[in-house]
Design brief:
heterodimer, A: about 425 residues, alpha/beta, Alkaline Phosphatase, subunit A, 2 domains, 7-stranded mixed beta sheet, 12 helices, globular, B: about 900 residues, alpha+beta, Jelly Rolls, 4-stranded antiparallel beta sheet, 32 helices, about 45% helix
């Protein structure tokens, strides 16, 4: 006798499993940032750093049996010992729709399902840093700054131009070169005001002209092609928005650089170190409040003299590969400890530290090897009022977006959902 | 009978209803029932998962998601739970195998665009080529996204993005191209000049100075040493000497006197180091160590002793003077010729008889090579010390790139430090280091050459100043004509041209010259949608035939990755291009043109996943021969082998890529493959002896280097590659969360023993039973594609990696999963070559994707079948596939 069940039925009652990501339909409420109106209170900022292929699971994760504040720091996190009370390791989270073991960064901050739209083999939704930029971006010279490590190797990050994705789920470009980052943040515009105004007007007239050609091209296009051309229009609109912003900031000189201009050609460990300095500098000067950093993987391994490529190391087992993997983890923890030191040492207007007002997340969408559950997630900084200093073990397969939602709430952005979130993480709230 | 009839009707219905959506084979009902439904039926619905009503036909996103969960949880070992009934390994592997493959098909079906081609913009390659055709300049496109991504081609409009930043980048690059075009127009009128460099005049004084300084220092040290040695032997110093040695922190094995000399100032009556020319008290000790190790001194002495050093210079490798430079930043952009008079030293190994030409590394430091990456060109040196040769290399100098060029012996450019391990190995034998291989008499740079046919000098759209022509009218006409050309024969709108003229006028009235003020509007054209997008107006669900002009554009970008030339546009203008005979003749013309190399490299690079070739730094000590130039040549071998088939009127059989009795190589690869008697840098057909492992893709170095990680070969990568690209049976993507086996790690096992562990777990076996046997069949190729009989484990020894132990004999025998057995690589290659039909089908699908700029869907099965049928009539000749595709309705439709 053959099968007892009925194939002609489509699946029933599984709706709960397929929570579609929240898209732009939510109607974000814009509200004035406290910082913009009362500059004496330091603003809230957030930065997200992804490391591609994950960590050495045996030596990076604290023992799940030792929950709470009283846990033993594993060797992979040992360099962070001085800050143990100031960061929380969150365990048990994942991005439920990600099946790509070689792509940990594409959906890390979005929680989207790449196959959500029929007839397309790739779709994404807004990343959490861009949500923050939507809410706080109007108050700063740059609404967000995505940074990207310079890495010719496939580091396990997956598709995307940076960690950031805009509200339509299109990739947001990032800046690669620390020297360029420095100039974007701090290079003084020594042109006289009128000339800068004229330059902005010139740029506008360029946009006006290309739009005339765009309208010609648009005539007679099919709907799909029109959508494609819409990306071009969107690009032009983005520049227009930026020009208006430039205009708003025309009479405000750029902040004085709290760091020196980086040397050219820094790679791997040196790159991460300088990028951390630049992140601190950007946040400290309130040049932006939403940052991401897709960190280099291959060049980091090269700079540690491991002589192995990222994918090889990600498939570690006892021996040289695992040594390399642990060496990388240690380097990351050392760099991160340095970053926390700087955040703590930087004073704000009210006497608090930059650390007190910033949320920094270090992690990624691949745990180790090809595992996509219990993603490595380390949260530090007081910017979203979280309960720091603990080894927090959440129920298996908690949406990582719940953590992002908790951070958003902590920063004063009270959305109902982000990505595939099902609620905030109460245990994480301080 | 009734039952049978019912079954037949039922099957027919099923087929009709679900022809578009893939299904998991029915035999797996049993698996679900036995191992899943106890908990996941409609009644229990444990974890809110109900599999009872889940259709085997995966035709909706929700069912795909649920099946994905089934796949994921079985792969991760989570299901069935440990305390429940477990499937047999074979049963589980079969289930996972089918489900994973069905999921791939389902994803494909669900994302099928139904033959719709999304408008695309010029991808990075096409942008660069198009700018070159328009302005005669090559822009540096590093700042643009590559547009490549896994599982798609850079011609897919649906996968391309554009952003505000990118638009600004187009403006910037367009401006650079326009500026350079004007600058070349001026330099085209200059007389060419010749700059010559005699390297011995640069090197010899430096080498001699080094040697003299050292000799002087050593002589001073000997004097100092004699005094110190005597003092140390004197009775009054005995206690002190004893104390010095007691406190010594010297590591074992070094010279004991070193400690003494370091502390010589403690001795009674110690000489003053300054009297001997030493600035610091510890300098004599350091000098002593230099004398003991000798290295640099011995190396320089050896090079200073070589014959003919007064007429030319020997190139050093790894240390010292290895690169001869020419050029200066003041050179005007244009075409130049670099000449090198060079000789290869007698008796050097064949692989050392080559020079690299490139821009010199500007950031100097020990971690970098002499050139900043792959060389611009590599040439074999066939001249001898008695009869040196002159090598000529055409070069292009651009406005915004470095105008210096360097010549060096062919070598790794990414890691000079690693070369030091090699120096040590040589020094042990000869006492000084790496012996010289190349001698350079002189190098010279001549140019800029006048070029009459370059677009930058012709500028056909340009209008000279003339009486009676109003300046704004002149500008308007220039911009109109340039836009017409940039938009590939489409007229720009009048308001657009007016807007451009306004911008021109603004700069002009601010005081810019006409030639300066016109540049900005010209570069804006190169960032406008009419230039950037290959737009074909259409209605959403309706297909229409392309106009001849659109056909010309599509054809040119397919086969040249560049805009249509005059001939194509003229035929289109006359409305003749679509006529089958004309079209056929044009395809042949386009393929014969060297511009079709852009199609070959663009298509093959993506089809065969060749980006892997650039993923790894190959260890310099272990793989000295696989340097940047060899890597480049190995890549070209793949391209040239395909281009040979594509252009050959009779010998164009695609199956030759599976096995052939010839190779298409140059002298560099001939020396690499150990084929003797081949000289010259051009790629040509070389017949192979019987039983050569070379011939076909499986014999190519590039393919094997891609199937390694830079240190060891990876049978898994190689096997999966063969399935994907040669046998058209791609394994599903690597599943997430499969438990990794680590109990075997770090044992001295053969790769085969290590990978055999895959078979122990059903989750792994479901794919690896197909992949691994093929990968093992290729194990006679080492990580850089050289033939080997033994396999070695690698160990790290100091700065270098070494082969460990005596090695294991390689066994390549095996069997295809549920297929024939083979005794060795040769037999396996035969079996793979027998699968020409499968190979041709996979090739066709990828060709269709590349040409149409969209994924092949289920709706394309007819097209693929037709192309295959047409190509079969011509013995699967490569050009026959291309002709059939161009001739299809799909290619000629929007």
């Amino acid at each position: 006798m053959k099968t007892p069940f009925n194939r002609r039925h489509f699946l029933r009652g599984t709706g709960a499993l397929i929570a579609l990501p929240a898209l732009e339909s939510l109607g974000f409420r814009r509200f004035a940032s406290a910082a913009a109106t009362t500059p004496s209170t330091p603003p809230k900022r957030a930065v997200f750093m992804s490391m591609g292929f994950g960590v050495t699971q045996e030596t990076w994760y604290p023992d799940q049996a030792q929950q709470g504040a009283d846990y033993k720091l594993p060797t992979g996190l040992a360099p962070l010992a001085p800050h143990k009370a100031d960061f929380t390791i969150v365990q048990g989270c994942y991005n439920q729709f990600n099946n790509n073991a070689h792509g940990g960064s594409t959906f890390w901050l979005t929680g989207a399902n790449r196959y959500a739209i029929p007839g397309q083999n790739m779709s994404n939704s807004i990343s959490v840093d861009q949500v923050i930029a939507q809410h706080f971006g109007h108050a700063t010279r740059f609404s967000s700054i995505p940074l990207v490590g310079d890495d010719p190797f496939n580091g396990g990050h997956g598709p995307g131009l940076s960690l950031a994705w805009d509200k339509k789920g299109k990739p947001v470009g990032g800046i690669k070169d620390p020297v360029k980052v420095f100039h974007k943040l701090f290079s003084a515009d020594d042109m006289p005001l009128e000339q800068r105004q004229a330059a902005i007007a010139d740029n506008r007239s360029v946009l006006d002209v290309v739009l005339k050609d765009a309208k010609r091209v648009q005539r007679g296009l099919s709907k799909t092609d029109n959508d494609k051309l819409e990306e071009y229009f969107q690009g032009i609109r983005d520049i227009e928005t930026r020009l208006s912003k430039d205009e708003d900031w025309l009479d405000v000189p750029k902040a004085k650089a709290p760091v020196d201009e980086p040397k050219p050609g820094l790679k791997g460990k040196d790159e991460i170190e300088i990028m951390y300095k630049l992140i601190v500098a950007a946040l400290q000067t309130d040049t932006t409040r939403a940052m991401t950093y897709r960190m280099p993987v291959g060049t980091l391994l090269s700079s540690l003299d491991t002589g192995m490529n990222p994918h090889t190391v990600s498939h570690y087992s006892q021996g040289p590969r695992m040594d390399a993997s642990q060496k990388r983890d240690k380097a990351h923890s050392e760099l991160l400890a340095g970053f926390i030191d700087q955040l703590k040492a930087t004073k704000e207007v009210d006497g608090s530290s930059l650390f007190d007002n910033t949320t920094a997340v270090f992690g990624g969408g691949v745990r180790s090897i090809h595992y996509l559950d219990n993603l490595p997630t380390l949260i530090t900084g007081g910017g979203s009022n979280l309960d720091l200093g603990q080894n927090l073990v959440l129920p298996k397969d908690t949406p990582l977006c719940n953590v992002w939602l908790t951070i958003l709430h902590g920063m004063g952005i009270k959305l109902d959902r982000h990505g595939d979130s099902t609620g905030v993480v109460k245990e994480l709230q301080g | 009978m009734k039952y049978l009839l019912f079954a037949a009707i039922y099957l027919a219905c099923t087929f009709a209803a679900f022809a578009q959506s893939p299904a998991l084979p029915e035999k797996h009902f049993d698996f679900l029932e036995k191992y899943c439904l106890d908990c996941h039926d409609a009644a229990t619905e444990k974890g809110k998962v109900n599999l009872e009503d889940l259709p085997f036909q995966i035709s909706t996103l929700p069912s795909a998601e649920l099946w994905q969960q089934v796949l994921t949880s079985i792969n991760s070992g989570e299901m069935p739970p440990e305390d429940k009934k477990q499937p047999e390994d074979d049963e589980k592997a079969d289930f996972l195998d089918d489900l994973a493959n069905t999921m791939v098909l389902a994803r494909k079906a669900l994302s099928d665009s139904g033959g719709k081609i999304t408008m695309r913009r010029l991808n990075r390659r096409e942008y660069q080529n198009t700018i070159k055709e328009l302005t005669g300049t090559t822009v540096d496109v590093q700042t643009l996204p590559t547009d490549e991504s896994s599982n798609s081609f850079d011609t897919f409009g649906s996968s391309q993005y554009i952003s505000g930043d990118q638009f600004e980048e187009y403006l910037k690059l367009g401006r650079a191209a326009i500026d350079e075009m004007f600058s070349r127009r001026l330099s085209g009128e200059q007389q060419p000049k010749t700059y010559r460099v005699e390297p011995e005049r640069v090197f010899n004084p430096e080498i001699d100075k080094f040697i003299n300084n050292k000799e002087e220092t050593y002589a001073q040290f000997r004097k100092w040493q004699k005094i110190v040695d005597e003092l140390a032997a004197a009775p009054e110093n005995q206690a002190i000497v004893k104390d010095i040695y007691k406190k010594s922190t010297r590591k074992k094995g070094g010279a004991p006197e070193y400690t003494l000399y370091q502390n010589a100032h403690k001795l009674k009556g110690a000489p003053n180091h300054k009297d001997f020319g030493f600035r610091e008290a510890w300098h004599p000790a350091t000098t002593y160590r230099f004398i003991l190790t000798q290295k640099d001194f011995a190396l320089y002495k050896h090079f200073a002793s070589l014959p003919q050093r007064d007429q030319g210079a020997y190139l050093m490798v790894g240390k010292g003077y290895g690169r001869v430079d020419v050029g200066s930043e003041g050179l005007a952009p244009g075409h130049y010729t670099l000449r090198v008079r060079a000789a290869a030293v007698d008796g050097i190994p064949a692989h050392r008889g080559f020079i690299d030409i490139g821009h010199p590394q500007i950031v100097t430091g020990w971690q970098f090579g002499l050139l900043p990456g792959p060389p611009i060109a590599t040439h074999q040196v066939t001249g001898t010390m008695e009869n040196p040769q002159i090598i000529e290399v055409p070069l292009e100098i651009r406005l915004n790139t470095t105008k210096k060029f360097g010549v060096q012996e062919k070598q790794h450019n990414d890691n000079l430090k690693a070369a030091w391990g090699t120096i040590g190995q040589y020094a042990k034998k000869n006492g000084y280091g790496i012996p010289p291989a190349i001698w350079i008499d002189w190098i010279e740079l001549e140019g800029p050459h006048s070029t009459n046919h370059s677009p930058s000098t012709t500028m056909g759209w340009w209008i000279e100043e003339s009486a009676g022509l109003k300046e704004t009218d002149r500008a308007s006409k220039i911009l109109e004509q340039f836009a017409h050309q940039a938009f590939r024969s489409l007229a720009p709108a009048q308001d657009y041209i007016d807007g451009l003229v306004t911008i021109f006028t603004k700069d002009r009235s601010a005081g810019d010259a006409f030639e300066a003020a016109i540049r900005k509007p010209l570069s804006i054209i190169l960032a406008s949608p009419g230039f950037l997008y290959l737009n074909e107006p259409a209605k959403e669900e309706q297909r229409r035939t392309l106009t001849d002009r659109e056909l010309a554009v599509r054809l040119a970008y397919f086969l040249w990755s560049a805009p249509p030339d005059e001939q194509l546009l003229t035929l289109a203008d006359k409305n003749q291009l679509h006529e089958p005979a004309v079209l056929r003749q044009q395809v042949n013309r386009l393929l014969a043109d060297s511009r079709s190399n852009e199609f070959v490299s663009g298509f093959l690079h993506q089809w065969l996943d060749m980006e892997r070739l650039d993923f790894f730094q190959f260890d310099t000590t272990l793989y000295r021969e696989f340097d940047d130039a060899t890597r480049t040549a190995s890549r070209r071998e793949v391209y040239e082998s395909f281009a040979y088939l594509m252009r050959h009127p009779s010998e164009g059989q695609i199956g030759k890529l599976l096995n052939s009795d010839y190779v298409i190589i140059n002298s560099l690869l001939a020396s690499y493959y150990g084929i003797e008697g081949i000289t010259g840098d051009e790629f040509r057909k070389i017949s192979l002896p019987k039983n050569s492992p070379r011939g076909g893709l499986l014999g190519m170095a590039a393919i094997h280097a891609m199937g390694s990680d830079g240190i060891e070969s990876s049978p898994v990568e190689r096997g999966a590659w063969v399935l994907r690209h040669l046998l058209n049976d791609p394994p599903p993507p690597a599943p997430a969360n499969v438990p990794q086996l680590s109990r075997l790690a770090d044992k001295n096992l053969t790769t085969r023993e290590k990978v055999a562990a895959h078979m122990e777990e059903a989750q792994c076996a479901s794919c690896h039973r197909k992949i691994d046997p093929i990968g093992f069949g290729l194990e006679n190729f080492d990580p850089i594609g050289k033939w080997r009989e033994l396999e070695h484990t690698m160990a790290i020894k100091g700065r270098t990696k070494v082969k460990k132990g005596a090695g294991h004999k390689i066994d390549t025998s095996g069997a295809f999963h549920k297929g024939p057995v083979f005794a060795d690589y040769y037999a396996m290659r035969e079996l793979i070559a027998d699968r020409e039909e499968d190979f041709a089908e996979g090739f066709t699908e990828h060709l269709v994707e590349y040409a149409l700029g969209r994924p092949v869907g289920f709706t394309d099965q007819d097209l693929v079948t037709k192309i295959l049928a047409a190509a079969r009539l011509e013995d699967f000749k490569v050009s026959a596939f291309i002709q059939a595709l161009v001739n299809s309705a799909q290619f000629q439709q929007k």
